[in-house]
């Protein structure tokens, strides 16, 4: 599906940002391992979260989907497979976080996904699960899916480098449920706020663990998850695109459903845009942004890699140079987002230098609308769409259906704030 973006002088209005994907998936996984029925209020309904539902139902949980709530009947930490494989679609979060839980069982389970998933490295996580007692067979190329896993995990010691935080979150979610105690050394950790989010969920479950400066963790075994009722907050990763759209069009926009006290790392985008020259008003459950004359800054995106596509677009409209750095893990997402954003924005006339861990972008007054590729990557597509709003001439983006992975109503909300 192609989408044509028509440039606008400004955008305006109020929109409600959909629920957090990261919170929704953690809620599903913990509910699946809990005893009794859990209620997830205001979940994100997207391709990724539906993949997670499929995954936990394969592990033995049952999910009743209603418009404003999902009710999950948990397994009490016992894996009762209803199939011999899980296809996670495009959901890397489901792949990594469910792998650890699958290793609690005694039957072999195979994980696979789409072509992008089959290029996502998983060997480091599987090595740690093996050290904790799992049997692992990797049939994919270069340490990527498909792979098969069989438990039970028994506990012990492991050391894991985490270019993606999801490796560590996977271990933190499964180790409380195994028989023995576990010790995890973490010599490298990127995307720390997502681990903080996982720990927030564990804290609400009263899970016992020791965290030594995120360099090592000790987790007590034989613990349990309890059923819960919890509201999912709005997604700052999704909000980023609308915040940046207001910034580059020098517009005023109110986003509802956002809580700056939440553990999501991408809330830092608000402060990044403020540093670049935007005016921000933070309310109890909303954020209003007004774009100003943007200036180039240095942006360390190690904790917020999902913000790279949108911040790269924003930098194109900032006076001077913007350096985006310390985010090499952006190359390991659905696409190599560093290389892809350079390639596509240069088609629109941007001036970009590629770094091993980021980009240096020299801002311009305008980009030029043209045909660009979304590379079947939801965040690339959304970033190019907002770039088109502030460009001269129409921008045509291919493969836009991939936004359904995390933000099915993105274009609907975009149309809502654009003048007709």
Write a structural description.
The chain is α/β, with parallel strands linked by helices. It has two domains: 3-18 and 235-417, UDP-n-acetylglucosamine1-carboxyvinyl-transferase, Chain, CATH 3.65.10.10; 21-217, Enolpyruvate transferase domain (UDP-n-acetylglucosamine1-carboxyvinyl-transferase, Chain), CATH 3.65.10.10. It is built from twelve helices and 27 strands. The chain has helices at residues 21-33, 47-59, 92-102, 123-131, 165-174, 192-204, 236-248, 268-276, 308-315, 337-347, 378-389, 410-417, and strands spanning 3-5, 14-16, 34-35, 37-41, 62-65, 69-73, 85-87, 109-112, 135-138, 147-150, 156-162, 182-189, 209-212, 216-219, 225-226, 229-231, 252-256, 279-282, 286-290, 298-300, 321-325, 351-355, 358-362, 367-368, 371-373, 391-392, 395-398. It has a four-stranded mixed beta sheet with strand order 2-17-19-18, covered by helices on one side. The protein has a four-stranded mixed beta sheet with strand order 5-6-4-16, covered by helices on one side. The longest helix has 13 residues, at 21-33.
Based on the model shown, name its key terms.
single chain; 420 residues; alpha/beta; UDP-n-acetylglucosamine1-carboxyvinyl-transferase, Chain; 2 domains; four-stranded mixed beta sheet; 12 helices; 27 strands; 26% strand; globular
**CATH architecture title of the largest domain:** Alpha-beta prism
Order of strands, main sheet, comes to 2-17-19-18
Distance between the termini: 22 Å
Number of strands: 27
Radius of gyration (CA) equals 21 Å
Portion in helices: 25-40%
- SS summary, helix count: 12
| Amount of beta strand | 25-35%
Low-confidence stretches: none
Q: How much is the average pLDDT?
A: 97
The CATH superfamily of the largest domain is known as Enolpyruvate transferase domain
Shape: globular
Please give the domain count: 2
Largest sheet: 4 strands, mixed
